[in-house]
Design goal:
Elements: H1 3-30, H2 38-62, H3 70-92, H4 96-119
Helix pairs in contact: 1-2, 1-4, 3-4
The structure holds protoporphyrin IX containing FE.
Amino acid sequence: MSLLLVKMVHVTCAAISYTLFFLRGVWLIKGSPIMRQRWVKVVPHITDTLLLASAITLAIGIRQYPGTDAWLTAKVIGLVLYIGLGMVSFRFSKTLHARIAAWLGAQLVFFYIVTTALTRNPLPFLAQ
Ligand code: HEM
């Protein structure tokens, strides 16, 4: 599979991941019964697994690695935070306020990851 195709898979999975994350937050806030449907719990696992698999394939493909290249280290830390805040929002928080705060925080982290990916800079907002 060409690297360009892997990158397309990676970016598509990132877009699906964010769309579902956003919608799940909206459904949570509205108390929608959609949140109890099985696919809502299963599909994020599939897209996140593909996102990570394509990330590893891309890193090997361009010979740049987390731990060596700062922008990829930042993306991995960002991904861990994004997943962690998602778990706080959808699983662990007891109050709606805490759930919404974690949901909003995860979205900030997501946009940080995308900006880091596009600029290849771990501090994209300080870039000249
Ligand atoms: C929520 C998580 C992630 C999002 C939203 C995301 C987003 C993106 C985007 C938008 C691009 C395309 C950049 C461009 O067109 O120049 C990209 C490329 C890439 N990402 Fe991710 N990514 C995520 C996680 C990761 C992780 C954890 C790694 C760690 C290895 C990674 C490694 C890469 C690599 C190596 C590229 C290819 C860069 C290139 O070929 O120019 N990504 N990512």
